[in-house]
Request: fold
Amino acid sequence: MKLNLWRFLNLSLICLGFLIFGCTSDNRLRGVFGDSSIGALNITYQKFVPPNGSESITVMGGKAPYTFSVLSGAGSVSSSGVFTAPGAPEVGKVLVSDSEGQTETLTFEVFQAGVLDKTFGTEGFLSWQPNLTSDEQGKDVLVDSQGYYYVLSHSYMGPVNQNDILVSKYSSSGILDTTFATGGVFQYDNSGRTEVSRSFLLDSQGRLVIGGKCQMPGTSGDFCILRLTPDGALDPTFGTAGVFIHAESPGGVAEEVREIAFDSLGNIVFVGFIDDTTNTVVVGRLTPAGVLDTNFNITGIRQIDVLGLGTNAQALSVHVDSSDNIYFAGHVFVDGTTQQVSYVIKLDNTGAYDPGFGTGGTKTFDVNTTAADFADDLIEYDGQLYLLGRVNNGVDMDAYVIRFEKSDGAIDPTFGTGGVFQWDSGNGADKVDGSTGIMVDESGRILVLLSSNNGTDPAVALIRLLNDGTLDSSFGTSGVEFTTISGGTSVSSRGMQFDPMGKIIVTGFNGTASNSNDIFIMRTWYEH
Reply:
């Protein structure tokens, strides 16, 4: 009698459970009563694994012990549930079983570094057209600590079709963050005149600082720097209502900021040039308040006559080291016609030349002594400087990377061939028309971003070098990964960054049959 009463009470509790949870045959309900180890298999794992990488499979629910076996692919799985990927990209499957016969099949994709991450946008791409009938160009990309992507661009906007500066903010899945500016997009229109974007940075307070060119009445454009608050509005505490505009040269010649950098005090160092008959190089520094810093060259700005030649020169990239020394790079004609060399100039934090660097503070590089060299980007890694550029090989353009010392500009002979890596794709339609980004991963491998050609189509090219300046054969095909853009009549890559997941974000613009240029954003896999 006691047993029957107990069974009655137990059945009553079960029925009460059905009323609360709903009647179901799902094994999860069995876990509410009795043995908590019994339930549906619930498995967590990372689907995407790098070549030769490993991933732990975590199993909850079901009933232990669990068994793991490979259904397909060249990978392996241990008795404790650790999947080890093969060395080559593939899609493999693993079967997980519990002691009651429940099973789950897991799919692992072994990705190749440098190829498109098809979980982003549409097959790894986003295309953005702020003006469906006009030209737009992606110029640079940044990633913040929370994994949001910022894309700097400019586009013909508004009723008068003049260039405006744009910044768009995206989630890591490629969705515009509508809490930023207006619908996820900041637009700067200087009273219907032309603005051009070139470079931007995030400061320690999450504010965006943008460098470029802003047209004022009677000019073709002046040096221009903007600062935005974290929510995408012009920062009223910077410059004049969030904008610094400076005309260095009288008259209507164009002047523009090409790149910006921060020093240790949060000052903004900028380089650019005056587009006059001699293309005069300019370097300047702003305080965090957006005014010229009089501790730099007394006036806060300095015109540079590169090599004392008084001839065409450009400054395109700037780097500030931990001691606030300023290095900036560009190129200059040495004969006034065809012979062009790359240069790097080193200034101290007051704006004076460092006489111990190169010759009197200037180091020149002449990769091809009979043709034109171009400098595009300058970075520091592990106490040395890397200069990325292009060189005319007599037929078309090659990319080059030079590694040299910060102290005196001496080329590092252990890198590449005599300190220089030079690359020609070897394709019949080879064209390196942009060598626009260089960065170094935590293993010391060097990544180079180019606009190139895969032999038949214009393409984004990612090159990876080992630390000694030789192509890394484990990356892409012999160290190079080409990515074409569907429908693109031309491709110009302009900026890249690692995101917090370790993937590479690239932006630029591609020509289309229906429009001059559209902005693209792409994301690729990368192994660390």
